[in-house]
Design goal:
The protein is mainly beta and 271 residues long.
């Protein structure tokens, strides 16, 4: 298949094929306009704000620096494990631009995490102390990175990465609609709706593609008030690409339980 990975480069436009996945970096001249499907906080109703608040506050912009300048932009989301803060995102977000066949993994000190990058709000910048584990999209398995933070806003509770049984309920039984919060076009935070994801043969899920460059690493959260199984800030899918064929364009997400298993394997191998 052809997948467009939605990071956003600060440099000129480039399109590179890596293992049959087409990676697209976008410069300012390639920014896609945002339509009415993308809304900032002030455009949400009071009911919507109450439902998505925790997910909204836990969504971050990821900035990768090269030669002290922003090289690449993406999205991630904050979780708390014990007393430590971490970020889920895509592996291709924390690599330098895919301008060659072997993109370079950024060093921790060259990754910035921006909380609250949104309209009329002062952003909060934090550093990364460790790339705990990272699986390159050019190999088999999910395209993910798990980052350990040096510090984080202590008023954030984080969002919850779902495990398999609740994932199955929300996706298969409940067929819940989903929303995405990210940084489309590398700009301030926006919310859009993704419909109900549909399983694909390769284990990924397809949904309405209300994303743009800079959206890679966004969380897809189930929109449900069934507190027995999930709250509205439970994450089921990690957005990583756009799928295009002759008939349609769809967003692509990796099941979070798959990512959780890979993270656990990485932890077990390191001990």
């Amino acid at each position: 298949y052809m997948g467009v990975l939605e990071t956003m480069s600060a440099n000129a436009a480039a399109k590179t094929q890596v293992n049959q996945v087409f990676l697209q970096s976008s410069g300012d001249e390639d920014v896609q306009p945002l339509d009415e499907n993308f809304r900032d906080w002030a455009e949400l109703t009071g009911e919507e704000q109450a439902v998505v608040a925790e997910a909204w506050n836990s969504t971050v912009q990821i900035r990768v620096l090269r030669n002290q300048e922003i090289s690449q932009l993406g999205t991630g989301w904050f979780v708390l494990r014990g007393r430590q803060g971490y970020i889920y995102t895509n592996a291709h977000v924390v690599h330098y631009d895919f301008e060659g066949r072997n993109p370079t993994l950024a060093e921790e000190q060259n990754i910035q995490i921006a909380f609250d990058y949104e309209i009329n709000k002062e952003e909060l910048l934090f550093g990364v102390s460790e790339i705990v584990c990272c699986q390159h999209p050019g190999i088999a398995g999910p395209d993910f990175a798990f980052l350990k933070l040096r510090d984080w806003p202590k008023d954030r509770q984080g969002i919850f990465p779902e495990e398999q049984h609740r994932f199955n309920y929300l996706i298969t039984v409940k067929k819940a609609p989903f929303f995405i919060i990210g940084h489309p076009n590398g700009g301030p935070k926006k919310l859009s709706y993704a419909g109900s994801p549909v399983a694909r043969e390769d284990g990924t899920y397809a949904y309405d593609p209300n994303t743009r460059g800079g959206s890679s690493g966004s969380a897809l959260c189930a929109l449900t008030t069934d507190l027995t199984y999930a709250t509205s800030h439970s994450v089921c899918l990690l957005h990583y690409a756009i799928f295009e064929d002759e008939n349609s364009t769809k967003g692509l997400g990796i099941p979070v339980p798959m990512v959780n298993n890979a993270i656990r394997e990485a932890f077990s191998e390191s001990t």
